[in-house]
Give the backbone structure.
Amino acid sequence: MKKSALKLTLLGLIIGFSAAQFSVKAQAVSSFTKESDGALCTISGGTATKLKLQVCADNIIRVVYTSQATIPSPQGLVVGKATFSPGTFDATDNGTAIVVTTPKVTATVTKTTGLIAFTTASGTAVCTETGRTMTAVTKTGGSGFSGTLNFNSPSGEAVYGLGNLSLSSPAWGTASATGSYWEVGPPDKNGVLNIRDFTFDMHQSNWYDIIPFFMTTSGYGVLMNFCCHGTKTAPLSFSADFLLNNCWDYFFIYGPQFDTIISGYRDVTGPAPMLPKWAYGWWQCKNAYTASSDLTTVVSTYRSNNIPLDCIVQDWGWWTAYGSFTWGSTYANPSTWISTLHSNNAHLALSIWPTFQSSASNYSQMTGHLITTSCNSGTAGQWMDAFDTTALRLFWGYMNTGCYSVGADAWWMDAVEPECPALTNQSTSWGPIEEYANAYSLAHAKNIYEHQRAVSTAKRVVNLTRSFYGGQQRFGTMYWNGDISGSDMKNVATTVSGGLNSCMAGNPYWCSDIGGFQNDPTDDILTRWFQAGTFFPIFRTHGSRPTEIYNM
C-alpha cells in the first residue's frame, strides 16, 4: 500500500473511531429566542437543529432536542397533560451561555457545546449533561432516531428508581436454553437499592420492569419521555433505540426532597388515584382455583375462622380458551356465585391475558389486530396489538360483556410485558411498534381504565399488572415483581429493594407474590416474606401451593 493511501486509511479509521467513541460531539448554539414558556435555541454541528428548554414549573424544566420544524407536545403515553404553567422565569444570553432561571433552579446552556448544567437558584451544582446525541434509524418502514443521553454522577451519589430491577436469577432457564426473550435472567443485584453502578438493558420481562424515571441523592429526578427499548450504563448514561416524536424529550425535576421530586413526577405524568378501601386489605390468590365453588368455599372458610379477607383472585383457566371470555363449565352462572362472594363482603379480581388462541370465539374478529411476527406464545395464542385502536376497543367489549357486566370488581392483567420476545418489525395504528415497545402494559392499562370509567363510575378501577411503565399509575394500576421463586431467602431481600425502586419511580402501589410463585418456601422464608409483605402497599399472597392463611 502506498504511503498516501495508508495515511488516508489511517485518517479514516481515526475519524471513524473518534465518531464512535466521542459521539457527544459539540453542537453550538447559533441563536436563541425567549418564548412564553422558555428558551428556544437554534443549534448546529449535529443531527438536531433545535434545543428547547420549557419551563413547566419553578422546579421542572423540560428539555427537547430535535430536528423537527416544531417542538412536539409532551403529551402522549407517559406524560399526562399537554400544557404547563411556567410561572415566573427569565431567559437571557450572557455571551457564553443561554441561561434560564426560575425561583428554584437555573439551567445554563453552554453555547459552544449545547450541553446543559442545572443548578439551584443560589448556584449550587445539581446535575450536568455530559453528552446528548441522535442518530437517524429506520424501523418497520418508519424513519426516526435513536439516541444517547449522559449525565455526570459524582462518586458519592446514589441513584434510585428506574423500576423493578433488583431480582435474583429466575428458575425458568435462559434465552439460550429456551429461545424465549422474557426468560432472560435480569442482573442479580442481591437486594442492592442504589443502581448507580449497574449496567442493564431497559426492556420489559416477566420479573424485570423498566420505568424511565430516576432520582438521586443530589436532589433531582429525570423523567425520560420515550417508550422504546434502551440501555443504562454505569454510572448514569442512557441509550434509546427509537425515540418518541423524533426527539430527546426529558423532564428535569428538582426537589431536593424526594417527596417533592415524586410530586413533580406526578404533576407531569398524572396522579395516582385512590383505590377503593378494600383494595388496601388482604388479597387471597392462588395458582389456580378451578371452579367457582373453590372461591365461595375459601371465602366462607375465611369468614368462619374470623380471618380478614377483602379480595379473592381467580387466576387463569376460568375461560374456555385464551381470548374467548366465555366462562368454563365449572364457572357456570357467574353473576350468581359472584353475588355470593359479594354477600360475604369479598371482592373478585379476575385474571385476563391479552392473548387469543385460534380456537377462541373472538379469534376471527381479532384477526389483523394481533402481533403476528415476534410475539407468539404456543398454547396461549397470539398477543393483542395494544397499540391498535380497534384491538383495544374490541378487547374491552369482550371484557365488559363477559366479566364486568356480571360483577367482577378488579382485573389482573397478566403477561402484559408482553410475555414474548422484544416487539419488533410491525406497524401499528400509532406508528412503528419499536417506538412504543416498552409501554405495552401502559397502553393496555389506559384502555381498561378509560373504557371502564366510561361505562360506569360506580366502581373505581383496580388493575394488577405484571408490567409497569412511566405514567401508568394514573390508570388505577398496581404491579408486582413477577413469577419469582420462593425457594431462596435472597428473593425476599430483592423483592424489598425492587419494590422500593419501583415506588421511587413514581408508582405507589407495589406488591409481590408473598412466598413466591414458583417452588415451596420454607417456614422461615414464608415468615420473612409475610413480615415484608405486611408493609407492602398491597398485601397479597400467591403461589402454586395451598396459599390460604388457614392452610399454612
Remarks:
- The radius of gyration is 25 Å.
- Residues 1-24, 168-185 have pLDDT under 50 and may be disordered.
